[in-house]
């Protein structure tokens, strides 16, 4: 096939403007087949020649010259190696100097066809073809196609510029050196001004993920004490603006009250903690109410229920009980189940409606504790009752997704943007959240020393159990990593993806399975029954030295919340009976 | 005492935060002249509207509800007769699931009131499986009359003299309860039948059927799709157990349309909701919610906003006396754009007009009278406008014209003032000209009805008097023409195409097409004249009534057409708001320091809040983020050289990270150490 091609090319060559290109390519090929040292002068001469009679594209020329000079004087070891690497292939291909250019062109042409085919293939069944490899090849394919579009002149330029730099696509032959695709100058800066969805796909593209391996040193993160000390000394430079925002929002208090009176509920959203607003609103409401009919000139005080949804462990039952304590005057015995309690409360409110709706201020209605299935619908039922006025705040940006059309109708919310920029002081435990985010929740116990401290106070059996767990976990980690390393060593682009998937897998399968750990413990005579085993584990749990989770299969997994280095240290300490 | 970490508590005012400073602030903030009067006016107006809404809703419901109640009553009429299938009502309630709940609640009230039946509603949410379903059923059916605590039901066997205690999901409870309470039937309503598992429904039907000899069940299924697809989901076996009847509930589209003409497009409105807002509300209904309640809420909020925020709206109160008005309200009226416009045009109209302008500007009394007079006349004109829209709609309906344009659409176009020149009107009037006599009869009866609601003026007489179309006169004239008619074919007008014939002649190799009018009979001619007269009257009626409401003086007082609070309050964009706050904090803070840096919008500045800085770096990074690099970048931007400051910078950084996590923008990942995964892309 190649030979047919060549013949045709030869025919074409007669009197075609390509000749120039062919000649240059000739030179180039000749130069390349020479030893590295030998080629420089000729190349330089040619560059010189081009400088004198060349195309008007001066910038390109200059770079060409500069590169040439560079090569002559201080050939970097990199390019040197490259050339040595490439030479045998070239000479194998271009046995006859005259034949080389056509071969190059043919190669280009067949590559063109190939790349067309590849792009087509990818379009039809993209999943099957390997993405990483494709990435490189696609770039090459596109480049070749681009070249085709470019006129002869462009080809010249390319040769000019790229001659000194060995790793150019135009010079790549069939046996393209491995890894040369990586050298392809990819644009280091990501494309800007992409529409959001394009950006999503751009950032999630396979192989597009390159972050450095830097790690934070353990000291740089602050612990609770340091954090509070640092933050208490901090003064926000936008304090006055934030105060102004707050002031703006509090001007709407009367409006909100009017809205509540008309049977709507109010929901505040926006960035920043809205606790200050709700606090001020509660005060405002309180004063307003205490001047109204049933409270004025009487001992009675208005009652406003306040619920902090963000506080860990907030339950609907507590909320309902609080409201019931306001709504129901003679509390006999409240039902136990939240659902029944809600029915009871609503019945009470309908049967003997209070003189005015009971205001309920709920901070963070979208907190994780109030998100789960029955709570939103029950809250909605409560909010729908005319004797309840709900004022709530929502922090997350996507909170409306919590409610479907039916619930939304029941809630009857009017939404107000109440951006405050205030820090979420009460809502977030900053240090804890960051530790969790970085997988360092072990810091909670006070690190390795803390664990040691706890273990010292525990019986021998507990220490043994902990040691087993640590060692098992380490072994698991090493196993996972080992398989990763193996994969990566043999990483042709094809199975890289598999390796990647494996590395991602432990996220759900982290830790040691409960059963496995129990059997190990029994084998080593740490405990004799599951009850004893549980007792030991409970102690660890209480000190937050282990964490547990159900995995995808439903079996419980336990692990020590430390990173590998710390685990190794721990294992050493435990083995040497340092505790 | 610190309450911020307490979960639930009852508010107690701070001891040190006493009243005086508070009072002062409130006094200053609420500069709202005559707010009480305005709110009172709002309440009066809204009460009227709400009455309209209630009536419309009840009217829409009443037919189907009546037939369902009859069905239930018939099923329970002979309780002791053996039945072979469960009487089943398939209530096709349409796709707007939000209105199903209230509908079945109303239905339940009616059934309980009108028939001697127990009524229970079950929803898919509370019935994941048969056992729970039965528990719920037992609980709901029995606890209606005598309250029984859940705890007692949960304790299983407590032996009594009636033998072993029944389990709490045994239908025997209902049987026992029925013996005590003597209800004729037990109505079990499955509110959202589509959400139930088909297997569960089959089981339920089988079970209820097996109990049918002891408890007379009646089943009602709420269906959002169609009765056919409901039938497809059940097996033949269970279908044999059912004896179904279908009830079609008025769809929410139709109800909304009815509500619209009863409220917004009603003829005796004092406050008019403008076309922009109406279009928005109706589009929202069509595209997103399909919910009657939501429409009413939107309307209510429009009323609320108008009376709360617009000071001159106090003049909408009919009983308002000059003595009660405050100077501020009148001053506010003098600042209305339409008033200023009016003054400016009057100024150019000569000396007499100039004198009235002076009195309007100087005398509060004069202005008050003017406002009162103008508002009532404008209300009249707007009412005519609504009437005209209604007339146009009715004409189209009587002439059976396509495409079918909704009354609300016509109203909105009329209110935005572009109906008069619209092709819609022209086309309608043209086809009116061609109407044959059989359709014309329908048209006349419609017009009769419309003119009884409000007369149809077509000419302005002297001194504000108007000349109205004498529909009954036309009617009798028409009847007399019809009486003389000899053929059975309907009479046609001269504009009717059927009277035209086209003759083609060839003259000098050119084809000449000539239209020839067929000779009209005498009756046809008379009819044609009549139609032409009606046509010209109606045309001038439309020209007279279809005004542009925005040009009316004081239109700000009696028209509310602002989209601003309405849109944000009902369709908030919380995600956009949060993203904006963090991506360009300056928009909210309005500070001097964080605006555009070096003329470049949205550049990262050290002065911005820490979270905003981290967020903007977050936006730039890929799907995985190395926290160490993020930290060093943050330190480079926000940090100081000072070593002591580093812990402060770190604290800020940690807080920013934690906030992003709290907002759901970050999550931990195990893919790489010290990396976090990006969850949200801005603007997606």
Automatic annotation (TrEMBL), chain A:
<dbReference type="GO" id="GO:0005664">
    <property type="term" value="C:nuclear origin of replication recognition complex"/>
</dbReference>
<dbReference type="GO" id="GO:0003688">
    <property type="term" value="F:DNA replication origin binding"/>
</dbReference>
<dbReference type="InterPro" id="IPR007220">
    <property type="entry name" value="ORC2"/>
</dbReference>
<comment type="subunit">
    <text>Component of the origin recognition complex (ORC).</text>
</comment>
<feature type="domain" description="Origin recognition complex subunit 2 RecA-like">
    <location>
        <begin position="242"/>
        <end position="418"/>
    </location>
</feature>
<comment type="function">
    <text>Component of the origin recognition complex (ORC) that binds origins of replication. DNA-binding is ATP-dependent. ORC is required to assemble the pre-replication complex necessary to initiate DNA replication.</text>
</comment>
<feature type="region of interest" description="Disordered">
    <location>
        <begin position="485"/>
        <end position="504"/>
    </location>
</feature>
<feature type="region of interest" description="Disordered">
    <location>
        <begin position="1"/>
        <end position="135"/>
    </location>
</feature>
<dbReference type="Pfam" id="PF04084">
    <property type="entry name" value="RecA-like_ORC2"/>
</dbReference>
<feature type="domain" description="Origin recognition complex subunit 2 winged-helix">
    <location>
        <begin position="508"/>
        <end position="566"/>
    </location>
</feature>
<dbReference type="GO" id="GO:0006260">
    <property type="term" value="P:DNA replication"/>
</dbReference>
<keyword id="KW-0235">DNA replication</keyword>
<comment type="similarity">
    <text>Belongs to the ORC2 family.</text>
</comment>
<dbReference type="InterPro" id="IPR056773">
    <property type="entry name" value="WHD_ORC2"/>
</dbReference>
<feature type="compositionally biased region" description="Basic residues">
    <location>
        <begin position="171"/>
        <end position="186"/>
    </location>
</feature>
<feature type="compositionally biased region" description="Polar residues">
    <location>
        <begin position="93"/>
        <end position="103"/>
    </location>
</feature>
<dbReference type="Pfam" id="PF24882">
    <property type="entry name" value="WHD_ORC2"/>
</dbReference>
<feature type="compositionally biased region" description="Basic and acidic residues">
    <location>
        <begin position="118"/>
        <end position="127"/>
    </location>
</feature>
<feature type="region of interest" description="Disordered">
    <location>
        <begin position="151"/>
        <end position="209"/>
    </location>
</feature>
<protein>
    <recommendedName>
        <fullName>Origin recognition complex subunit 2</fullName>
    </recommendedName>
</protein>
<keyword id="KW-0539">Nucleus</keyword>
<dbReference type="InterPro" id="IPR056772">
    <property type="entry name" value="RecA-like_ORC2"/>
</dbReference>
Automatic annotation (TrEMBL), chain B:
<dbReference type="Pfam" id="PF18137">
    <property type="entry name" value="WHD_ORC"/>
</dbReference>
<comment type="similarity">
    <text>Belongs to the ORC3 family.</text>
</comment>
<feature type="region of interest" description="Disordered">
    <location>
        <begin position="144"/>
        <end position="165"/>
    </location>
</feature>
<keyword id="KW-0235">DNA replication</keyword>
<feature type="domain" description="Origin recognition complex subunit 3 winged helix C-terminal">
    <location>
        <begin position="575"/>
        <end position="642"/>
    </location>
</feature>
<dbReference type="InterPro" id="IPR020795">
    <property type="entry name" value="ORC3"/>
</dbReference>
<keyword id="KW-0238">DNA-binding</keyword>
<dbReference type="Pfam" id="PF07034">
    <property type="entry name" value="ORC3_N"/>
</dbReference>
<protein>
    <recommendedName>
        <fullName>Origin recognition complex subunit</fullName>
    </recommendedName>
</protein>
<keyword id="KW-0539">Nucleus</keyword>
<feature type="domain" description="Origin recognition complex subunit 3 N-terminal">
    <location>
        <begin position="6"/>
        <end position="315"/>
    </location>
</feature>
<dbReference type="GO" id="GO:0006270">
    <property type="term" value="P:DNA replication initiation"/>
</dbReference>
<dbReference type="InterPro" id="IPR045667">
    <property type="entry name" value="ORC3_N"/>
</dbReference>
<dbReference type="InterPro" id="IPR040855">
    <property type="entry name" value="ORC_WH_C"/>
</dbReference>
<dbReference type="GO" id="GO:0005656">
    <property type="term" value="C:nuclear pre-replicative complex"/>
</dbReference>
<dbReference type="GO" id="GO:0003688">
    <property type="term" value="F:DNA replication origin binding"/>
</dbReference>
<dbReference type="GO" id="GO:0031261">
    <property type="term" value="C:DNA replication preinitiation complex"/>
</dbReference>
<dbReference type="GO" id="GO:0005664">
    <property type="term" value="C:nuclear origin of replication recognition complex"/>
</dbReference>
């Amino acid at each position: 096939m190649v030979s047919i091609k060549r013949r045709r090319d030869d025919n074409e060559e007669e009197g075609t403007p390509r000749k120039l290109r062919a000649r240059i390519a000739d030179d180039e090929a000749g130069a390349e087949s020479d030893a590295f040292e030998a080629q420089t002068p000729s190349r330089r001469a040619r560059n010189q020649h081009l400088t004198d009679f060349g195309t008007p594209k001066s910038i390109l020329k200059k770079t060409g010259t500069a590169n040439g000079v560079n090569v002559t004087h201080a050939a970097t070891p990199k390019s040197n190696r490259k050339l040595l690497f490439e030479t045998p292939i070239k000479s194998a291909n271009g046995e006859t100097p005259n034949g080389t250019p056509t071969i190059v062109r043919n190669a280009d042409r067949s590559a063109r066809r190939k790349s067309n085919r590849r792009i087509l293939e990818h379009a039809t069944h993209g999943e099957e073809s390997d993405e990483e490899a494709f990435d490189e090849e696609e770039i090459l394919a596109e480049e070749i196609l681009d070249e085709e579009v470019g006129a002869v002149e462009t080809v010249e330029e390319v040769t000019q510029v790229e001659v000194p730099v060995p790793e150019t696509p135009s010079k790549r032959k069939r046996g393209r050196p491995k890894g040369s695709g990586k050298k392809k100058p990819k644009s280091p800066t990501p494309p800007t001004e992409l529409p959001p969805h394009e950006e999503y796909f751009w950032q999630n593209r396979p192989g597009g993920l390159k972050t450095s391996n830097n790690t934070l040193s353990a000291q740089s993160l602050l612990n609770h004490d340091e954090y509070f000390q640092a933050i208490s000394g901090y003064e926000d430079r936008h304090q006055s603006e934030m105060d102004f925002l707050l002031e703006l929002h509090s001007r709407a208090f009367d409006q909100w009250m009017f809205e509540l009176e008309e049977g709507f509920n109010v929901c505040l959203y926006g960035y920043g903690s809205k606790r200050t607003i709700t606090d001020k609103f509660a005060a405002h409401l309180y004063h307003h109410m205490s001047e109204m009919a049933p409270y004025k000139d009487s001992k009675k005080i208005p009652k406003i229920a306040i619920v902090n949804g963000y506080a860990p462990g907030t339950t609907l039952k507590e909320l309902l009980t609080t409201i019931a304590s306001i709504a129901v005057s003679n509390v006999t015995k409240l039902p136990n189940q939240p659902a029944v309690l809600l029915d009871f409360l609503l019945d009470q409110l309908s049967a003997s409606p209070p003189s005015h709706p009971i205001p309920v201020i709920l901070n963070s209605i979208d907190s994780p504790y109030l998100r789960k299935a029955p709570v939103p619908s029950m809250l909605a039922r409560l909010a729908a009752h005319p004797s309840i006025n709900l004022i709530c705040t929502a922090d997350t940006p996507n909170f409306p997704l919590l409610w479907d059309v039916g619930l939304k109708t029941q809630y009857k919310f009017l939404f107000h943007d109440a951006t405050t920029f205030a820090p979420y002081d009460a809502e977030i435990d900053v240090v804890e959240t960051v530790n969790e985010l970085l997988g360092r929740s072990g810091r909670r116990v006070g690190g390795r020393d803390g664990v040691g401290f706890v273990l010292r106070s525990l019986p021998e059996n507990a220490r043994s159990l902990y040691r087993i767990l640590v060692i098992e976990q380490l072994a698991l980690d090493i196993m996972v990593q080992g398989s990763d390393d193996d994969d990566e060593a043999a990483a042709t682009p094809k199975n890289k993806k598999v390796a990647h998937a494996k590395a991602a897998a432990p996220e759900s399968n982290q830790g040691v399975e409960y059963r496995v750990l129990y059997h190990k413990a029994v084998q080593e005579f740490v405990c004799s029954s599951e009850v004893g085993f549980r007792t030991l584990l409970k102690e660890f749990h209480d000190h937050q030295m282990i964490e547990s989770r159900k995995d995808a299969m439903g079996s419980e997994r336990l692990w020590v919340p430390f990173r590998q280095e710390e685990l190794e240290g721990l294992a050493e300490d435990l083995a040497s009976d340092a505790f | 005492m610190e309450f911020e970490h307490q979960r639930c508590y009852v508010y107690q005012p701070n001891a040190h935060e006493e009243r005086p400073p508070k009072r002062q602030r409130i006094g200053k903030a609420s500069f709202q002249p005559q707010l009480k009067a305005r709110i009172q006016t709002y309440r009066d107006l809204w009460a009227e509207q709400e009455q309209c809404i209630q009536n419309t809703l009840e009217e829409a419901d009443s037919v189907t509800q009546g037939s369902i109640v009859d069905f239930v009553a018939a099923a329970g009429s002979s309780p002791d007769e053996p039945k072979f299938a469960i009487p089943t009502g398939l209530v096709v309630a349409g796709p707007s699931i939000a209105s199903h709940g209230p509908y079945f609640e109303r239905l339940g009230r009616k059934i309980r009131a009108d028939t001697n039946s127990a009524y229970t509603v079950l929803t898919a949410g509370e019935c994941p499986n048969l056992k729970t379903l039965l528990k719920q059923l037992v609980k709901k059916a029995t606890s209606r009359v005598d309250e029984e605590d859940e705890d007692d039901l949960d304790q299983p066997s407590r032996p009594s003299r009636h033998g072993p205690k029944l389990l709490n999901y045994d239908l025997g409870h209902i049987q026992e309860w029925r013996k005590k309470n003597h209800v004729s039937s037990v109505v079990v309503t499955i509110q959202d039948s589509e959400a139930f598992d088909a297997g569960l429904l089959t089981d339920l039907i089988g079970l209820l059927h097996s109990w049918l000899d002891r408890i007379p069940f009646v089943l009602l299924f709420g269906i959002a799709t169609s009765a056919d697809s409901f039938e497809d989901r059940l097996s033949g076996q269970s279908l044999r157990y059912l004896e179904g009847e279908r009830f079609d509930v008025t769809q929410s589209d139709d109800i909304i349309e009815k509500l619209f003409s009863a409220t917004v497009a009603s003829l005796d409105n004092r406050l008019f909701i403008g076309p922009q807002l109406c279009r928005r509300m109706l589009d929202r209904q069509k595209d997103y919610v399909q919910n009657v309640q939501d429409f009413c809420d939107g309307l209510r909020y429009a009323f609320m906003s108008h009376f709360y925020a617009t000071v001159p709206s106090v003049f909408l109160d009919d009983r308002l006396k000059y003595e009660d008005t405050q100077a501020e309200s009148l001053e506010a009226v003098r600042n209305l754009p339409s008033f200023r416009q009016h003054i400016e045009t009057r100024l150019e109209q000569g000396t007499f007009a100039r004198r009235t302008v002076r009195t309007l500007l100087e005398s509060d009394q004069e202005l008050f009278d003017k406002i009162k007079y103008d508002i009532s006349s404008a209300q009249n004109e707007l009412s005519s406008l609504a009437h005209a829209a209604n007339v146009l709609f009715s004409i189209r309906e009587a002439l059976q014209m396509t495409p079918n344009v909704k009354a609300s659409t016509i109203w909105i176009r009329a209110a935005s003032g572009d109906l008069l020149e619209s092709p819609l009107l022209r086309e309608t009037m043209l086809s009116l000209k061609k109407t044959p006599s059989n359709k014309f009869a329908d048209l006349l009866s419609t017009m009769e009805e419309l003119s009884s609601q409000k007369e149809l003026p077509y000419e302005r007489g002297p001194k504000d008097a108007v000349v109205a179309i004498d529909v009954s006169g036309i009617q009798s004239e028409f009847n007399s023409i019809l009486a003389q008619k000899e053929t059975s074919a309907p009479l046609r007008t001269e504009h009717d195409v059927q009277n035209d014939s086209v003759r083609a002649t060839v003259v000098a190799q050119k084809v000449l097409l000539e239209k020839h009018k067929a000779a009209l009979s005498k009756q046809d001619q008379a009819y044609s004249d009549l139609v032409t007269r009606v046509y010209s009257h109606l045309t001038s009626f439309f020209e007279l009534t279809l005004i542009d409401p925005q040009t009316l003086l004081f239109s700000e007082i009696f028209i509310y057409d602002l989209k601003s609070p309405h849109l944000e309050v009902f369709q908030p964009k919380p995600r956009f708001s949060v993203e904006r706050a963090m991506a360009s904090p300056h928009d909210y803070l309005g500070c001097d320091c964080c605006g555009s840096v070096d003329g470049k919008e949205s550049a990262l500045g050290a002065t911005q809040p820490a979270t905003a800085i981290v967020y903007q770096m977050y936006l730039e990074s890929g799907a995985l983020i190395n926290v160490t690099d993020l930290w060093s970048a943050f330190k480079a931007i926000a940090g100081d050289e000072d070593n002591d400051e580093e812990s402060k910078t770190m604290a800020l950084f940690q807080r920013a990270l934690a906030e992003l996590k709290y907002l759901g923008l970050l999550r931990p990942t195990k893919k790489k150490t010290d990396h976090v995964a990006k969850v949200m892309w801005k603007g997606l």
